[in-house]
């Protein structure tokens, strides 16, 4: 998402249309015939709003589709979801904002991971390393592979690592369609508010699955699309159903959904122990 933040909300044209439609029902003082006609038009507008505006109207295909881009989207659709624009490195300061600790409780998310000291953790879409830096002390005999496709983000990450003397975080330059991780090298892949921006989500997650050890885990944190009170742009939120659909498409098994965080779902998946590397 170049030049803007996920919390910069956009007007939801579907709900505006619905509210406008229901507003027509106030005209009950009109003559009965006119009022009846307006009520019928109301439901036409409502049904159009629910089917034509939202992601449900998009075909749930495992192939990518092209649509006219939304204000915050890239015009590529995967499994019925339009992919959001990527937040550029210009917005890196938002990732390390002081209010994040209280607002999102990232430490609670890390505690939920149940990390072992020897784990190799891939932080996919690591940005400036907000999570990578906090996970590093918990895996002293392991390491953190901090993957990002923006060299500028990795440069900021390396500056932070040097300033803090952290030695077990390894920056990895990914590609839009690949995390560039060695096969069978990762115990856990963590994706925090990043997956919804992947231009090629299927290819990236296929690469993540290959990088996982047998029985390895994937954990996604995504803002709750089901909650309109979460003040994040629509395309930067995901529902539990949508995440599960997309992870199943690459062969990952759902384990649980943890809703201990105030604004985000934590969704846990696992690679089958029988699945080849």
Commentary on this structure:
This protein is an alpha/beta fold and 277 residues long. 32% of the residues lie in helices and 23% in strands. The chain has 9 helices and 11 strands. Strands 4, 5, 6, 7, 8, 9, 10 and 11 form an 8-stranded mixed β-sheet that branches. The protein has a 3-stranded antiparallel β-sheet with strand order 1-2-3, with no helix packed on it. Helix 1 (13-23) runs antiparallel to helix 2 (32-53). It is globular and about 45 Å long. It starts with 12 loop residues before the first helix and ends in a 7-residue tail after the last strand. 35% of the residues are buried. The model is unreliable at 9-35 and 41-59 (pLDDT under 50).
Poorly predicted spans: 9-35, 41-59
Total beta strands: 11
The coarse overall form would be globular
Q: What is the rounded Rg?
A: 21 Å
Give the helix proportion (percent range).
25-40%
End-to-end Cα distance: 33 Å
Q: How much is the average pLDDT?
A: 83
Number of helices: 9
């Amino acid at each position: 998402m170049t030049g803007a933040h996920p919390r910069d909300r956009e007007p939801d044209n579907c709900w505006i249309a619905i509210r406008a439609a229901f507003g027509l029902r106030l005209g009950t003082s009109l003559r009965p015939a006119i009022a009846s006609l307006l009520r019928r038009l109301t439901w036409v507008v409502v049904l159009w709003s629910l089917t034509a505006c939202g992601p449900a109207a998009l075909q749930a295909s495992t192939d990518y589709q092209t649509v006219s881009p939304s204000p915050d989207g890239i015009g590529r659709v995967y499994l019925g979801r339009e992919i959001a624009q990527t937040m550029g490195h210009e917005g890196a300061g938002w990732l390390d904002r002081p209010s994040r600790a209280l607002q999102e409780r990232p430490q609670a998310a890390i505690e939920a991971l149940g990390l072992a000291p020897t784990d190799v953790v891939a932080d996919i879409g690591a940005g400036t390393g907000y999570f990578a830096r906090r996970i590093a002390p918990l895996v002293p005999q392991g390491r953190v592979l901090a993957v990002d496709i923006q060299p500028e983000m990795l440069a900021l990450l390396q500056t932070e690592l040097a300033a803090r003397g952290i030695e077990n975080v390894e920056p990895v330059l990914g590609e839009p369609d690949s995390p560039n991780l060695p096969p069978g090298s990762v115990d856990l892949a963590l994706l925090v508010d990043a997956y919804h921006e992947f231009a090629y989500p299927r290819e990236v997650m296929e690469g993540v699955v290959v990088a996982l050890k047998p029985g390895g885990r994937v954990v996604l944190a995504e803002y709750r699309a089901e909650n309109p009170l979460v003040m994040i742009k629509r395309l930067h939120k995901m529902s539990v159903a949508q995440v599960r659909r997309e992870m199943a498409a690459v062969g990952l098994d759902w384990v649980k959904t943890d809703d201990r965080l105030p604004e985000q779902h934590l969704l846990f998946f696992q690679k089958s122990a029988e699945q080849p590397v």
